[in-house]
Amino acid sequence: MKASFKKIIASDVPVLIDFYADWCAPCKALAPVLQQVKKQLGEDVKIVKVDVDKNSSLAHKYQIRGVPTMVLFKNGEVVWRQSGVLAKEAILKAIQTQETA
Asked: For this structure, is 27 an active site residue?
């Protein structure tokens, strides 16, 4: 998992990691929002869901204290992070800011 995760976040395309848990109601509310973001941006973003219960070492490494937490990577670096459910527009803005950076 670790090597492949490093490979995933090393992309020059922004990679949004959604740290979630199956038991988390806000995580379920965020899922359709992220689908809309992906539909709108297509190949301009990768969205990866990471279950914190199954990947606790990864959650610990990125200091995930609550779910949902979204962490945006570009070229392997954390460029943005936010906990909680956000509106589609706020997520789009965060990603599009990185595309032009």
From this structure: yes
Q: For the chain, what is the domain count? A: 1
pLDDT band at 101 (very low <50, low <70, confident <90, very high): low
Tell me how crowded residue 50 is: count the other CB atoms within 10 A of its CB.
21
Q: Cα–Cα distance between 34 and 56 in angstroms, integer?
A: 22
Catalytic residue among 24, 48, 85, 92: 24
Active site residue 94: no
pLDDT tens per residue across span 41-62: 999 999 999 999 999 999 999 9
Q: What is the CATH number of the domain that holds 59?
A: 3.40.30.10
Q: 92 is in which domain, residue-wise?
A: 2-100
Q: With the C-alpha atoms ordered 17, 21, 38, 42, is the resulting torsion angle positive or negative?
A: positive
Q: Identify which of 40, 101, 37 has the alpha carbon closest to the alpha carbon of residue 75.
A: 101
